Amino acid sequence: MDKLKYKRVMLKLSGEALAGEGGYGIDFDVATKIAYEIKELVDLGVEVGAVVGGGNIWRGRNGKEMDRTTADYMGMLATCINALALQDSLENIGVMTRVQTAIEMKEVAEPYIRRRAMRHLEKNRVVIFAAGTGNPYFSTDTTAALRAAEIEADAILLAKKVDGVYDKDPHKYADAVKFEKLSYIEVLEKGLQVMDSTATSLCMDNDIPIIVFGLDEPNNIKKVMLGENIGTIVSKISK
């Protein structure tokens, strides 16, 4: 059996990743593809937690007239919809999954309880953390960092539409340079769009490496777990 680099991980997916080419809503073919990639990890014996954003359903305030707190709560509900969709896709292919929410909605998901979440992981169940932290003004990036620290994850796998971290947008600039390794401090000082500053600082304080990679390439999640040098690694030391 191949040697795993990480035993327990937090997978952070954007809501847009579930939307596919349509850019809005949920593309269940895409959700199924992601589910199969997660299944590969589970079959390897990796314990997987996941956080999904809600940007494919709700992007926040559409105008200055909307209260920020209300808009953030609406975003939290959007993450719950995505979490249930991903759970359904996983269970359709035989992967035991639990959704835990920071805002209680016991008819559709478990409330977030750290010890229960860790027990699910130990039983090889995927745990999807929804509804953010339960508080406005905190992003799903911060949720991923916080839950990763709480469940003692070995790393955060940050799946994006680009294959790593660049010094500028590679979709707009042909001369954009990709970083193989970065330190948390470099990310913060350069203002690189890896995770928001709160999430990056939380990872730095708890020494949780962030591996940024492209989701579109097949088997990339598995490649990361087996230690292949893809994407960008953010950790204490960049050299």
UniProtKB/TrEMBL annotation:
The keyword ATP-binding applies. It is an enzyme of class 2 (transferase). Pfam families: AA_kinase. Residues 7-213 form the Aspartate/glutamate/uridylate kinase domain. Pathway: Pyrimidine metabolism; CTP biosynthesis via de novo pathway; UDP from UMP (UMPK route): step 1/1. The keyword Cytoplasm applies. Transmembrane segments: none annotated. ATP binds at residues 12-15, 55, 59, 166, 169. Catalyzes the reversible phosphorylation of UMP to UDP. PANTHER family: URIDYLATE KINASE (PTHR42833), URIDYLATE KINASE PUMPKIN, CHLOROPLASTIC (PTHR42833:SF4). This is Uridylate kinase. The gene is pyrH.
